Amino acid sequence: MDIFTDPILKVEAIGNLRTHHARDISSSPLGIGFETLDREMFDPERCYDALAAAGAKWARCQTGWNRCETVKGAYDFSWLDVVVDNLLERGVQPWFNLGYGNRLYMPGIPTATGVGCVPTGYGEECLNAWKNFVAAIVEHFRGRVDQWEIWNEPNLDIFWQPTRASGTNFAELVGITAPIIKKIDPQAKTSGCCSMIEIAFVQQALQAGIGPHLDAFAVHPYATLPEQDYFARLAALRRLFQRYAPHVKLQQGECGYPSQPYGHQDSWLTPYFASETTQAKYVLRRIVLDTMARMERISYFHIVDLIGRTYRLADGKARPPIRLGLLHGENYTPKAAYHAFAHLAALFDAACRADNYYAVLKVDWALRQTGALPFLAPVVGTFARNEYPLYAYYYPEDLQRGWPGMTPVTLEVVGQPDGLRRLEHPVLIDALSGKLYRIADVEENANGYLELRRLPLTDYPLLVTDEAAVDRVP
């Protein structure tokens, strides 16, 4: 049963959330991955319009040294020009992940595309060629691209060949590369990243002097349960940067969840159940968590399933396809997760900011017989949008369990936090379906808080704000 049909609820459907095209969003931290075109893993022409229509303002693109320089000293950026210009035309800002090797200077590497082969490990000619490539690509795209992420997941050996991954080795590459970027384009921002949130790796890189070369650092927090250890690890990471490089901004640069349990590369996530619905719920939870964490950028991997070509990493071995896409790889049609992303892109834009307001879930004691955990461990996020309070809440159950949700619950909130407008006409937003509901049972209690009663509780974020704070389609 759809939990929203439970007669105990006091909510009334009033329409749907209006989604926004990227051109109609002034700015936003939300983006979608456009990676692997260095290996021609998907058809970008079939993705540009969908990506922009979802409201993504950023697209992470890999530059592919091997594809740009096929003759020594000669660069062909025409394929990247097409990508960049198409994205910009639609209001999406590309940001470049600068990386991977080149067979011209790395003879005998097992992968034809140079994935994961680092120029610092192949001699002086290779390193000089890397420097020349960096200078050429920054000069070529100056004025169109000013965000440069140096290498991909340098804490993994599979992306750091022929030597072992270490923070010290990564700091060396960044120390060589970042000054070239900044010299050619003083307005450029440089960043690094790591798979997951590897504190020891980052600490080693910071101790090796990487900090002054970076403006930002991105984490790739893949997990079947996105909440697990997330804020604890982020707190430790922030403390490290506060000590060594307090100017560095944190980003979430890559994450994803499969839409099927088997037959894909990301089986290492060990899903025992996955579907389009669980993937969509993951997207919602990830965006809310990252916004709560005040991430400068929030990116989902990937726009489409990667099934067009065989997926290979530095060892050259054939791997199963990537099934994390927001679009089906077979026909480029949207999955449920695509629509979920678009719903939150319509809310978590420049008009929205994370803030700290009082908001708690309450429940009648009689309902505790169903289990206390939904009320001991809810996630509640507080934000402001269009100068109205915006609240998000959910129970972080394992998505794979198919938890049906429960009713009714009460959300107790501040009706008018300092500096904001009063919550006069509260609405409930189902970010999964995009439906809007007017909340009918509202009362101000003796403490001056609003009690929004007889609401549902789900395993993905539901949002509460004023009807005037959102755009809707009747």
Helix and strand sequence: EEHEHHEHEHEHEHEHEHEEHEEEEEEEEE
CATH class descriptor name of the largest domain = Alpha Beta
Unreliable spans are none
The major beta sheet can be summarized as: 8 strands, antiparallel
* Helix count, DSSP H or I runs of 4 or more residues: 10
- By secondary-structure content and strand pairing, the structural class works out as alpha/beta
| The CATH H-level homologous superfamily of the largest domain | Glycosidases
Order of neighbouring strands in the sheet with most strands = 10-12-13-19-15-16-1-20
Shape: elongated
Topology:
Layout: E1 11-17, E2 30-33, H1 48-53, E3 58-62, H2 65-68, H3 78-89, E4 93-98, H4 124-141, E5 147-150, H5 167-184, E6 189-195, H6 199-207, E7 216-220, H7 230-244, E8 249-252, H8 276-292, E9 298-300, H9 336-345, E10 352-354, E11 359-362, H10 373-376, E12 379-385, E13 388-394, E14 406-413, E15 426-430, E16 435-439, E17 442-444, E18 450-457, E19 462-466, E20 472-473
Offer a quick outline of the entry:
By secondary structure, the chain is an alpha/beta fold. The protein has helices at about 50-55, 65-70, 80-90, 125-140, 165-185, 200-205, 230-245, 275-290, 335-345, 375; strands at about 10-15, 30-35, 60, 95-100, 145-150, 190-195, 215-220, 250, 300, 350-355, 360, 380-385, 390-395, 405-415, 425-430, 435-440, 440-445, 450-455, 460-465, 470-474. Helix 1 (about 50-55) links the parallel strand 2 and strand 3 (about 60).
